[in-house]
Design a protein that fits this description.
Largest sheet: 8 strands, parallel, barrel
CATH architecture: Alpha-Beta Barrel
CATH class: Alpha Beta
Bound molecules: SN-glycerol-3-phosphate, calcium ion
CATH topology: TIM Barrel
Organism: Sporosarcina quadrami
Distance between the termini: 59 Å
Pfam families: GDPD
Protein name: Glycerophosphodiester phosphodiesterase
């Protein structure tokens, strides 16, 4: 009889696919290695533009990452820096420009040899979040970064409202959240959490060069009150950290990984996904 009970218990563990007491409890399944197109497919197209997002989608990205800011007239626009200097022909802070003024600029300054054909100027303007959401099909999932949110009063409310308008606060047919928000700014993430507890949030964390990823149990307990995951600079990641996060039902995304060998190592480590400027990193021929 004892043998039969042990056999039954063993079978139960095998069938559930995990040891008793460690059921995965996170909106993002823990059985796939996700490719997140960082600022789109920004190794190949000007970052944070619609052509970059379209290419990222066509290259098979599971999620598309983009950075949001607020204009002087309170419109959510997509750009990485809070100043337009690096990626356009002009200069000055986004928050000091109206949307109409930003729309006069071209988001394809040739800083990395990725300049778009000037004939396609319109396709390479600074997109609003609304334009991106309206143009991309239902199947696209987004990782939206609240970038420098302390610069913009009310940006969290505006973002949550737009996510509601576009049905992003729900899961897709495959069971994945249509959108998650990440940020280095904990206060801003906490604010989003207070506004809507159904939006999955990831805390971005950077570690110094040579430093290993770590988190105290106090920090982890706090993280669990508002976030479902962390985004960590990939060089700092190690298997122990990833395993500790998974034990706590926290997913781990790594940023920003453009080398195939690094990607393979991170996958073997159990990392849930990578931000990459090359969404074809693991499927391409390079
Ligand atoms: O991929 C994580 C990343 O988005 C945070 O860094 O500077 O590229 O926005 P950054
Ligand atoms: Ca970002």
């Amino acid at each position: 009889m004892k043998k039969i009970i042990m056999l039954f218990a063993g079978l139960l563990i095998l069938l559930t696919g995990c040891s008793i007491g460690t059921k995965w409890n996170n909106p993002i399944p823990n059985d796939e290695f996700l490719i997140i197109g960082h600022r789109g497919a920004s190794a190949y197209e000007p970052e944070n533009t619609i052509p970059s997002f379209e290419l990222a989608k066509n290259l098979g990205s599971d999620y598309i990452e983009l950075d949001v800011h607020l204009t002087k007239d309170d419109k959510l626009v997509i750009m990485h820096d809070k100043d337009v200097k690096r990626t356009t022909e002009s200069k000055g802070k986004i928050k000091n420009h109206t949307l109409a003024e930003l729309k006069e600029l071209t988001a394809d300054e040739d800083k990395d040899g990725k300049v778009a054909a000037s004939a396609q100027k319109e396709a390479y303007d600074i997109p609003t979040l609304q334009e991106v959401l309206a143009q991309m099909t239902d199947e696209t999932r987004f990782v939206i970064e609240l970038k420098d949110p302390d610069e913009y009063d009310g940006i969290e409310e505006k973002l949550v409202s737009m996510m509601n308008d576009y049905g992003l606060i729900e899961k897709d047919k495959k069971g994945y959240p249509k959108a998650v928000i990440h940020s280095f700014d904990e206060e801003s993430l906490q604010k989003v959490h207070r506004l809507n507890k159904d939006i999955p949030l990831l805390q971005l964390i950077s570690f110094d060069d040579g430093e290993e990823a770590k988190m105290t149990s106090k920090e982890l307990t706090k993280l669990q009150t508002y976030a479902i995951g962390v985004g960590v600079s990939y060089e700092a990641l190690n298997a122990e950290f990833v395993s500790a996060m998974h034990q706590a039902n926290i997913i781990v995304f790594a940023y920003t990984v453009d080398d195939r060998e690094d990607a393979v190592k991170l996958q073997a480590m159990g990392v849930n996904g990578i931000h990459t400027n090359k969404p074809d990193l693991l499927t391409g021929t390079e």
